[in-house]
Design brief:
Largest sheet: 8 strands, antiparallel, barrel
Helix content: 10-25%
Number of strands: 15
CATH class: Mainly Beta
Structural class: mainly beta
Number of domains: 1
Order of helices and strands: HHEEEEEEEEEEEEEEE
Oligomer: single chain
Length: about 210
C-alpha cells in the first residue's frame, strides 16, 4: 500500500511539472494568468484535535491534542482548481480513560487535496477533499511493553481562506477533517483492535506566491 500511495503522489508531481513546462507563452495567455500564481507555499501552526473511538468493550481510548508546525505546497491548474500537498508530523499521548498509560506515538500523515478556490477582492476562500496515508512511528508503549500501530489510508475534507497582504504574501486560516483509523496490537496479543483517530486540524499561518 505504501508503494501505491507514494507512486500516486509522485505521478501528481510529475503532471504538475509537465503542465508547468508546457504552458503557453503567448501574450494573450500571459495576460490571462497575471491575476494568479501557479505555485504557493505556506507555513502554518496546527492544532491537531483527535476524536478517538475504539471497538474495545468497556474501554475508552484517549488521545491528546497537540500543536505542531506544518508546510504545504499548492499548484494551480488554473485560477480556481489547485492541488495541495500537506507535510507535517505530530506527537500524541495515548491512554485508557481512568486506566493504563499507553505512552505516546508520532503521526506522519502526508495529505494530497484537490481544491476549488473562490475570489472576493483580497480574500480567497477555498474548499477541498483528498486522501492521506498516515505512518505511525516513535512509539512508546507506556505501561505496556510495546504497541504496534498499522499505517493506514484515510480521507480528508478541507475549508479555508487566504487573505492577501500584497501581491506576494498572504495570511491563511485552514480547517481540515481527517477520517482515519488504525489497527492497534499490544505486544504478545493475538488480535488487534481498531482505534479511530479522526482528527480535526486547525491551522493559521503565512504564505508566499511564486
Amino acid at each position: 500500500m505504501k508503494k501505491i500511495i507514494f507512486s500516486a503522489i509522485l505521478a501528481c508531481l510529475f503532471v504538475f511539472n509537465t503542465q508547468a513546462q508546457d504552458e503557453p507563452t503567448s501574450n494573450d495567455e500571459t495576460t490571462s494568468n497575471e491575476d494568479y500564481s501557479k505555485w504557493q507555499i505556506r507555513f502554518r501552526i496546527l492544532s491537531v484535535i483527535p476524536s478517538p473511538s475504539d471497538d474495545i468493550d468497556g474501554v475508552d481510548v484517549d488521545i491528546s491534542t497537540t500543536f505542531t508546525p506544518e508546510f504545504d505546497f499548492t499548484y494551480f491548474f488554473n485560477k480556481n482548481i489547485a492541488a495541495e500537498l500537506i507535510l507535517a508530523t505530530s506527537k500524541h499521548d495515548v491512554e485508557i480513560e481512568n486506566g493504563a498509560d499507553l505512552g505516546h506515538v508520532w503521526l506522519l500523515p502526508p495529505t494530497l487535496n484537490l481544491q476549488y478556490h473562490f475570489y472576493a477582492d483580497d480574500f480567497k476562500p477555498y474548499v477541498g477533499a483528498g486522501i492521506n496515508y498516515t505512518i505511525f512511528y516513535g512509539v512508546d508503549g507506556g505501561d505496556l511493553d510495546d504497541i504496534d500501530y498499522d499505517s493506514a489510508v484515510g480521507f480528508s475534507l478541507q475549508a479555508g481562506v487566504d487573505y492577501n497582504l500584497n501581491e506576494k504574501w498572504f495570511l491563511n486560516l485552514d480547517v481540515k477533517k481527517l477520517f482515519l483509523e488504525t489497527d492497534v496490537t499490544p505486544k504478545g496479543a493475538s488480535e488487534s483492535s481498531k482505534v479511530g483517530i479522526d482528527p480535526l486540524i486547525v491551522g493559521f499561518g503565512l504564505g508566499m506566491k511564486f
